Automatic annotation (TrEMBL):
Keyword vocabulary terms for this entry: Carbohydrate metabolism, Cellulose degradation, Glycosidase, Hydrolase, Polysaccharide degradation
Active site (UniProt): E360 (nucleophile)
Organism from which the protein derives: Planomonospora alba
PROSITE patterns recorded: GLYCOSYL_HYDROL_F1_1 (PS00572), GLYCOSYL_HYDROL_F1_2 (PS00653)
InterPro entries (alphabetical): GH, GH_1_N_CS, Glyco_hydro_1, Glyco_hydro_1_AS, Glyco_hydro_1_beta-glucosidase
UniProt-listed Enzyme Commission number(s): 3.2.1.21
Gene3D superfamilies: Glycosidases
Family affiliation: Belongs to the glycosyl hydrolase 1 family.
UniProt enzyme class: hydrolase
Listed name of the protein: Beta-glucosidase
Amino acid sequence: SEETAGTGEVIFPEGFVWGTATASYQIEGAANEDGRGPSIWDTFSRTPGKVFAGHTGDVACDHYHRYRDDVAMMADLGVQAYRFSMAWPRIQPDGSGPVNPRGLDFYDRLVDELHGHGITPLVTLYHWDLPQALEDRGGWTSRETAERFAEYAAVAYGRLGDRIATWTTLNEPWCSSFLGYGAGVHAPGRTDPGAAFAAVHHLLLGHGLAVAELRAAGAAQVGITLNLAPISGDDPEAVAHIDGLQNRIFLDPVLRGEYPADVVERARRFTDWSFVRDGDLDIIGAPIDVLGVNYYSPTAVRLRAGQPANPVHPGSEGIAFVQGDEEKTAMGWSVKPSGLTELLTRVSRDYPGTPLIITENGAAFDDVLADGRVADERRIAFLDGHFRAAHAAIAAGADLRGYFVWSLMDNFEWAEGYAKRFGLVHVDYASQRRTPKDSALWYREVIRRNGLQA
Ligand code: GBH
């Protein structure tokens, strides 16, 4: 089928980095320990009806206490690099002002442990756990949050900058803005498209201000992670609308220093954009060293009269989101490796010159743990197809430097709670026992060969 990118041997470029990824709120637990303040995800997950079965990140994978074992497990799996996020409310419990040294101590210990095992850390400064105190003052709809974020970045760099080469600012500002402030399915659960556009801008401004701080402090490599998707459909206006909201509203400011004019125009019914001040786009568009790409699935749209707007995509009345007959993951997302080739090729063509890393790709399936084993052949096939698709993009000229599988282990899957499992490693939440799935053992071989066998 078109989804088979071949079955021959493929070898990745020398120095290609293979890693795994996680995020603080999804794995750490220890929500009330060592001076951590509350985040918007604590508030959201404790609000009845917001997260599947009332699950919270209070305990999660208990990684805060088990990080040594988890790092050793990663080393056993041959993982070369680890992408994790720092919890802002551990470091500044109120999001501003006093620094909590015990919060920094945790990441200090984690980073030393990683280096001790020869694993390269890649840090994300913000993977959605905004200090609640900042949300109480407007969160990302407020310019102040962008300024506080840059201060937090400087604090984090001050403690760990000597041991972490690659610093990324935000994970998926699309989710923070459109899911968090627009559709209300992520924290803080607001449902106001105008607020979502304000959040987009202040997230991007926070990125730019943080980049300036990190540069001034001497960071080796700085970047941002975006969740991008190829958009297809037979109506060019509908495709442009959704591509604008999903991809270009972030790519253009960061990599070209401007908002796309068509997106600005279409959003005028929700916002007058008065939060954009002179000079902001210069800050946001300052050069970065690496673009992190998270890819899960493509989006297909077509015109359908009377279709109500999808709350996730402001102004999308009359546009239907359609799914083909491709295989679906447990999230209901289409499996389409060729979408990754298409995406990487497009970004390389339209935004040349910035090295790329896949900072997340992976899938949830209905894993079964039986006799100490998870035979997750569907995840192996998924990863095999996507690794081949990434290799095809490199062959076509994409400057792709590394690949981080989401996720190292099963964890708190946001609104889905613990019901969806993305891990290479199975987690039994009652015992906290970790069991590498067959995919983890397969991935170890991929890393060892730096590629795939015929
Ligand atoms: C990422 O977000 C997060 O960074 C990570 O924390 C999370 O655990 C992981 O992915 C898995 O969810 O319904 O077919 O239109 C993923 C962002 C946004 C990707 C919605 C899929 C919908 C696909 N997702 N998108 S579809």
